[in-house]
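Appendix B. One record, verbatim.
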Amino acid sequence: MHKKLLLLLLLSFYFISAFPQDADSIVFVRSNWSKKRIASKTTLVKHHFDAKNLFASNQNISYLEVKNKGNAPVFEIGSEASALKPTSAFGIASGAKAAINGTFFDVKNGGSVDFIKVKGKVINETRLEKNHSRAKHQEAAVVIQDGKLSLKKWNGSPDWERTLTDENIMVTGPLLRIDNTDEALDSGTFSTARHPRTAIGLKPNGRVILLTVDGRNANSAGMSLFELRKVMRWLGCTSAINLDGGGSTTLWIQGFPDNGVINYPTDNKLWDHAGERKVANVILLKKKP
């Protein structure tokens, strides 16, 4: 008991010292997070801030923490070239342990608007903007090689994603942090407004965070990218990236109630687990072969 108290005091001291401007960080670390092991080296962590006590708002956060080494599950990309289906359907069809929604897509015609490569095969090309510039969600990527996940930053070249040697690539963003340094975020409404969010973070000890924040509801306001970055930093992520959010935000786990949907997707505008949006791609967590 004394060891737990000492650990809590040390963690509190760390957060207060590291983030003196953020009283929210103290609330965040001291909250009674629920934790449940769902697979080898994989833990589901959740908390509902329901007293308007995180960023002066209600917030519902769910994430998986995965040990990205040893006999841990492996990561894969699930993708449809020109079709759409719910995150849960991707997970079920692939026999995955868990899944979160992936990057941005063509709502009308299906398929990703960002570069996708799966097992060495290019599924979708990056669709540049009308002036041939990149959107902020096209300046970084989630890459997976031999089941291990990492993040990469655009090097400024026009054919950057084509030069990456990783077998599995999902261009997405914006990048929130890389190598313990915050990335610049613009002042547009996509960055500053609160929405449901999906993010991936990497910790120095090799662990991977797959996170969803619910939004567009009185029970959970959603976050700006600036708030999301703080959360990923407080979780110890030295690198972190935003994925598609809004109605796409979904965390699914095999065998759980409500068809495995853990968070509260918003497409039905209800505070339940039935409002999944159909998406073009996902990040899958699968048992190591």
